[in-house]
Structure formats: C-alpha cells, structure tokens
Amino acid sequence: MRSLNAALAAVPGLQVIGRHTVGSESLDEAAFLEADALLINGEGTLHHSTARAMLLLAMLDEAKRMGKRVLLVNALFQQYEGPEDILANLALLTVREPRSAAFARRFGGRPLVLLDSAADPAFLGLGTPRPLRHGTVIGGAHANGLLKSPFAGIAGDTLAMTDARFEDIVATLRQAELYLTAQHHGVYAAALAG
After folding, report:
1. Of 51, 41, 48, the residue nearest 21 (C-alpha)
2. Cβ(1)–Cβ(40) under 8 Å?
3. What is the pLDDT of residues 12-69, one digit of tens each?
4. Structural domain boundaries, residue 89
5. Residues 95 and 161 in one domain
6. 110 and 36, same domain (yes or no)
C-alpha cells in the first residue's frame, strides 16, 4: 500500500479525501459522494465472493453508477459470482497474474497484468539484511492454505513475510542459497533478490 500512497502523493493537485480500511464495514459517505474518483487496492481481497470482496465491488458498482472514474489496481480477482459487467468501463484495471486477468475479462474487464505493487523499486535499495546462520531460508505459508506447515522439519533460518519489512526480506534473501516459501509476496521477494 505504501507504493500506492507514494504514487498518489506525487500527483500534483490530487487530494485524497477519504479512505476505507480493509475489514471495515463502515464507509465515509460524505467523502464517497464528494469524490471524483474511486481507487481500490484489490490486493488479496477480491476472490471467492467473500463479504470483503462483495463490499468493495458494491462500492465499485455504485461509483460507476454515479459517473465517477473507478480504478481497481493490484487485484487478485478470482472465483467471483456476480454481475457479468461489474468490471466493464473502469478507468484502470490492473491484476497481479494471468489467472486473475482471464477471470476479470469474463466480467467485462480489460485488465493489465502488472507486478504486485510490493515490488516497487523505490523501496528496494533501502533494505537491511538480517544475519543468516544457514544458507536455507524458510518462508511462511498462508494461514488458510492447504498445507499449514509445508516446510516442517527442514533446517534453515525462518523468515515469513510478517517478520520484517519487504525490502529487508529482499536484502536478506540476496544472501540465501535456497529459499522455500508458500507466500505470494515471498515469491516476489525471491525474484527481486535475484
């Protein structure tokens, strides 16, 4: 999110008048009505028609009906059940991978596939590597994944995405011989580490 915040701050004359926090069911209605545009960071929230996904998509749909420009960026969009034109006529639609792109097209979207915004090069030189005792680094796994501890029993330094800042993880992985992870952002960190 900080990459998006930095990009927004760099736009001359742009004023962010309201924010909605993931997980919150409340909405600043005055800001929503006043806004010229709606920007949604769809990171990890628009799948399986979850309550969070449906709330964000309802905001998206209402903003379109009101004639506002709608930008949906950094989205994971999969397993959605709803109106077939929900993503039509967006000012911008970016997704993180080809599966989301294909799914978005089924719902009227014209997506661009871009790297996750976590891969912002502006922050990558700022990392501080953690000292490693092993050449192997063991990353994390998604709490709701099929395998809860896929790397149990493998010796190595543990470093999940929640253990450090993203750029520190990238800097640490530059020292590793092997990195095992079941986390989406961990794969990005490994690619950026080289």
Report:
1. 41
2. no
3. 999 999 998 877 888 899 999 999 999 999 887 787 788 888 999 999 999 999 999 9
4. 2-114
5. no
6. yes
